[in-house]
Amino acid sequence: MYQPINVVARKGQVTIYFVILFTIPIIVFMSILAMSQLGVFADAKLQESIAEAVRAAALQINLESMSNSTPEVDTTTNNCLNAFTSILEKNLGLDSNFNPLPGSGIYSSPEVLLVIYNGSGRGFDQNSDDVYGSSFFGDKAVKEYMIINGDIEDITNSNIGSNGFSSLVYGDNNFNIIFNKNNFADSIQYVANSYPSSGINIDMKRPGVIAVIYAQVRDFTGSGYIGITRYAASQIVGS
Amino acid sequence: MKNRDGQVTIELVIAISLMAFLIFSVCDNFIIFMKYLEVQHYKFYYLQRMRVEGWLSSSDENSMINQFNAIGCPIISIGGPEQSGDDGDSNRVLYDPSSVDNSEISLNIVCIPNPQPFSPLSLIGRTQGNTIINIGGTMLSEYVPTN
Predict the structure, then answer these.
(1) How many inter-chain contacts (A to B, CB under 8 Å) are there?
(2) Full residue range of the structural domain in which residue B33 is found
(3) What is the total count of domains within chain B?
(4) pTM for this structure?
(5) Using one digit for the tens of pLDDT, what is the confidence trace for A192-209?
(6) What residues contact residue A163 under an 8 Å CB cut-off, 6+ apart?
(7) Are A192 and A212 in contact (CB under 8 A)?
């Protein structure tokens, strides 16, 4: 018997099957690729790179302070900054201007905040407003650098808030950095808003280095990117 | 009617085949990503040890090769200061407080995932070279000679 209505209905059914059967796997496929790549770069690459860069920076110890058994990160030379940028460039595949080299998973020049902290109690009076008071060797207890598009800017004396530290709000909420004096310990409290939204606190009980990086990582299409923020801190032990 | 029923069946077979192919591709890519992640972590682990020892010791080299074999990514080349190198102790990278460049220690590893990921181009007879994983990293050596 001729049943045209049923035939039309079946054809529509097949079309819907097609759409569903193709769309769902493709969405799953793209999601898994995106998540996998994000995991690889965020955890395996960016986090390890920034961790090694701050470790290298904290390794640049002032030799005079070392001989006095009170090791501090050397802020009298650019060794600390050079070590940080050199290790970061090599591990992320960047050139000397912080631009991604061919084959790098980084989409554009990353933005970095670097804090060198020597406020370990020597000359660091927490009850004083002068948190930049001289440390043991007469240098500033804290130095801060911002690296944007490969340009390194010393922001130590910029935007100093009532807490005495540089308070920086940068870009489209990539960084919103606030330094607070910790009232309970010989340390500073460090808060980076927007990552995560509640902020993070790092107690620096010894001299060391903190860095926050915002990088745009290429997505699997190659033409887009995913923004990732990571931080790392390294302290000198044994002082 | 019979002809149209057959059409539906063929369409379904094609759709299911393509879906199976896509799911296979997802799994295949996911495995490669996971292998890449795993070898990155291994590289980081051994680079950390090199940072302390100033080179890749022979025992670490052997255990690294075994671990890469165990996850199906046999190593085809290792770049970096190795204890097994020809120059003996001079291979070692020492901590130089006066020079960042002199203290840099690197490890580069090239390995081949086994089995190789599926290449869609092979369906049309195109041959490609082996897919390799090439990873590397740089740190500052902290090794100080004790004598």
Answers:
(1) 93
(2) 2-140
(3) 1
(4) 0.78
(5) 544 555 556 676 667 889
(6) A131, A179, A180, A181
(7) yes
